[in-house]
Amino acid sequence: MPTPLPTYFIPHGGGPCFFMEWPGDPHMWDRMADFLRGLAGDAGARPKAVLVVSGHWQEDAFTVNAGARPPLLFDYYGFPPHTYQLQYPAPGSPGLAGRVQALLREAGLPAAENAERGYDHGVFVPFKLIYPQADVPIVQLSMKNGLDPAEHLRAGAALAPLRDEGVLIVGSGMSFHNMRGFTPAFRDASLRFDDWLAAAVALPPAERERALVQWRDAPDALKAQPHPDHLLPLMVAAGAAAGDAGRRIFRDQVMNVVVSACRFG
């Protein structure tokens, strides 16, 4: 690649939301879907592969799915029957999985592989829109139990060389993820946290890292992220950004609250 690929933190929506009629508001997810459809163009060069960190996978060590043809993991519940028949036959990349493990171990981080696990909905739901032909290899990387932001920033930094090797690094989560908080009463809290997050992402890299490590001190942080599994993918994307600038590139209101996406590089 002539220049490093950017890294992203994206929202992956609610379950299979882009592929069903959403009760009450059939257009609620349209703007987010349009944003995701435009992400391939925003990234510029077509990547050789994608490394995705999803908010739906945690292990004792950073773990990659190393299968050549990962199945789909329908890890959502109570949705229409047809959403359990979705297909996304993107190939895996055992070679990239091995490279990821090597980089993490060189950085002193625990790494493992799982050749059986499929893509969860934090991967296949948004990527059905980003690369609808399912023709770009995808490797999923787990988060590490404990969800230590500094450790996930370190993991991202260890993986930064992949950007020069044609690998697109994407954190897939939600900037607001409180399953009891998708109500009008939490809208202002989501705005305050999202404004802080956008400002933190845009800080110079060293300051950005300090702010993200201390994210719990942000306004309404624990209202927006009572359990930070959907925020920690951002740390990997930010760590992989190295010295590159970050900025918010999307914001929308869904299910009464504000969610956003950001790009580094």
From TrEMBL:
What SUPFAM superfamilies does the annotation carry? LigB-like
**Family indicated by similarity:** Belongs to the DODA-type extradiol aromatic ring-opening dioxygenase family.
Name of the protein in question: Class III extradiol ring-cleavage dioxygenase
InterPro entries the record matches = Extradiol_dOase_DODA, Xdiol_dOase_suB
Q: Which organism is it from?
A: Pigmentiphaga soli
The record places domain Extradiol ring-cleavage dioxygenase class III enzyme subunit B at 7-246
The record's GO molecular-function terms, alphabetically, read: dioxygenase activity
Cofactor (UniProt):
Zn(2+)
